[in-house]
Amino acid sequence: MPSLREVQHAIRRSLVEREDGAIMPYMVADGLACEQRLAIYRNTFDCNLANVLRLSYPAVNRLVGSEFFDGAAEIFVHERPPRAAYLDEYGADFAEFLAAFPPAASLPYLADVAQLEWAVNRALHAPDAVPLDAQQLAGLDSVDHDSVRFVVHPSITLLSGNYPVDAIWRAVLAQDDEALAAIDLAAAPVWLLVQRRASGVEVTRIDDAAWHFSHALFAGQPLAAALPDVSATRAATVLADHIASGRFVGYTIEKPNIDTLPSEIAA
Amino acid sequence: MLGSLPTAPALSRVQCGPIPAAAGIGLRFPHHQLVAETRPLVAWFEVHTENYMGGGKPAAYLDAIRCDYPVSLHGVGLSLGSAEGLDDAHLERIRLVVQRFEPGLVSEHLAWNVVDGTYLADLLPLPMTEEALDVVCRNVDSTQTHLKRKILVENPSSYLRFQHSSIPEWEFLAAVAARTGCGILCDVNNIYVSACNHDWDASAYLDALPIEAIGEIHLAGHAERRVDGERVLRIDDHGSRVAPEVWKLYAEALQRFGAVPTLIEWDTDIPAFDVLQDEAAQAQSHLERFQAGEAHAIAA
Fold first, then answer.
1. Which one of A248, B259, B285, B287 is CB 3.0 to 4.6 Å from A132, fit for a cystine?
2. Can you tell me the distance from the alpha carbon of A265 to that of B101, in angstroms, rounded to the nearest whole number?
3. Residues B106-147: pLDDT tens digits?
4. CB atoms within 10 A of CB B40
5. DSSP string, B188-208
6. Alpha carbon distance B248, B203 (integer Å)
7. CA separation (Å) from A231 to A147, A194, B146?
């Protein structure tokens, strides 16, 4: 008699690796071939996960067509099945998969569009967090300004790409063929900020300098360390915009090293 | 005389809180906005736990809906039948959803979908063995301990059986309830589907379940698929109205279990909301007919 673990391994092999041999000896055929019974479960597994990916990547689905999408999704799902039952987090590496997927090579911007869609998906599902209030910063001692580290809102992603992926994404989702035809693929690189706000997810173009400064800030670097990328006046404007737009949820102050902690107080 | 009983509306709004012994509706994303904005007459709503693990719009809608309706949480991903034990991270996510929405009921399935840390995105059948029974009981215990509350466990629909199964599914489910103190979510459509697929006696299945453990009933539509030219398999696709045979079995279930919170589920080709309300009204009239009959019997 097989152990439960053996049965579960064997079913995994049938669903993910498409090898029915290990599970068939343990099944009751009962008037219907075991392969047919397993096919029902495999079909549900494939369809459920392809639909999860389609919901997260609607523009990719439109760009390649649902037949191509299903084919790509099937290979992806079998190569990289989900690691957790929280499926909002499934498919983060679909862009990486598409970038190395030879049948998709004729659409060089496809992986970049997928990357943007993942950032949008992440923004949609990120945990709720209360934005930092400008009032909370008002009491900050000016000597501490340089050492402030901001905590970025969990819905935010910064993206950069060689294609105008935001324009492609919008035109594809709006099914606006005219706008799509007018896109210049050779246009300058884009620097994007993706964020969930009360009204929905926003994809905003920012400039190169603001993007790099923000990138350092969002990575948790202290203000002084992020500054070399941008002029002080520009930094002040960008920072004010971040705070007004609720892009931070908190901050910490990195104190200079205090070598002599007053240990006698503890004693 | 039945005519002398007060005529309640087919569906009535109940204050948020415990799940009433009335007909509720499985709430899915396409109807969030309609429900939040129009507050239709529905006794209660059930949602899939996994759909509210993040923030943003879904959670905000449920926060709002939660103020006016009792809500229950129905999970699909905990994998109570996994030999390797539960995914602690997933269990903790469930706890946080329970903490946020304070549901009237929390349920999961007598099934599994995680092996080697891979999630198989379906409700897979267990071999009905003593070993599997121990595993499920251990996992239900861990869940109830972590959530600090009782859960309901739902009977699955299935398309295959194992040669080494030694316990009938209804006895297995009753044993899980007896050993862990969990309740049972009796999915009448699943009993019908599995009984057809495996030549079980659906009425005998109902009769074998412990009355005091039944906390909720599910109803849904299923599909018939002809496989191999001859054989018909019933597929639990939640994609149509409840079948006449399932309504009949539901009436039997009410006779046996009494009035129990009853849910209409619809997950494939989700229809307009009024179709779901219509199905719920049918369930409600079954419940009321049963309650009227019971009152009549007591009066006589």
1. A248
2. 45
3. 999 999 999 999 999 999 999 999 999 999 999 999 999 999
4. 16
5. HHHHHHHHHHHT--HHHHHHH
6. 10
7. 17, 23, 52
The tokens for B13 are 């709004």
- Rounded to two decimals, the pTM is 0.92
Q: Across the strands, what pairs with A199?
A: none
Q: Say yes or no: B159 contacts chain A, CB-CB below 8 A.
A: yes
Q: How far apart are CA B246 and CA A74, in angstroms?
A: 35
Mean pLDDT of A247-259: 77
Any alpha helices (H) in chain A, and if so which ranges?
4-16, 34-56, 58-64, 66-79, 94-99, 110-125, 134-138, 165-173, 177-181, 208-218, 223-226, 232-244, 263-266
Percent of chain A whose pLDDT exceeds 90: 79
**C-beta separation of A222 from A254 below 8 A:** yes
Residue the block writes with tokens 């909370």: A136
Inter-residue contact B56 to A125 (CB < 8 Å): yes
For residue A103, give the DSSP letter.
G
Rounded to a whole number, what is the distance in Å from the CA of A38 to chain B's nearest CA?
8
Between CA A108 and CA A99 the distance in angstroms is 8
What are φ and ψ of residue A232, in 5° steps?
-65, -40
Could you give the ipTM of this predicted complex? Answer: 0.91
Pairing assessment for the beta strands B112-115 and B118-124 based on DSSP bridges:
antiparallel
Q: What is the DSSP letter of B162?
A: B
What does the angle CA B278 – CA B280 – CA B282 come to, to the nearest 5 degrees? 75
Interface test with A, best of B115, B164, B236 (most A CBs within 10 A): B115
pLDDT band at B263, cuts 50/70/90?
very high
Please indicate if any CB of chain B lies within 8 Å of the CB of A80: no
Q: Are B172 and B211 in contact (CB under 8 A)?
A: no
Any B CB within 8 A of A131 CB: no
Q: Are A11 and A18 in contact (CB under 8 A)?
A: no
Cα–Cα distance, A252 to B272 (Å, whole number)? 50
CA angle (B8 as vertex; B4, B102 as ends), nearest 5: 140
Question: For residues A159 and A115, what is the distance between their CA atoms, to the nearest angstrom?
Answer: 8
Q: What are phi and psi of B97, to 5 degrees?
A: -65, -40
**Which tokens go with A192?**
């994007």
Task: Count Cα neighbours of B208 within 13 Å in the Cβ-side half-sphere.
Answer: 17
Q: Counting Cβ atoms within 10 Å, is residue B297 exposed (0-12), middle (13-18) or buried (19+)?
A: exposed
- Asked if the C-beta of A15 comes within 8 angstroms of chain B's C-beta atoms, the answer is yes
Give the separation between CA B282 and CA B291, rounded to whole angstroms: 14
Locus of tokens 């006046």 = A233
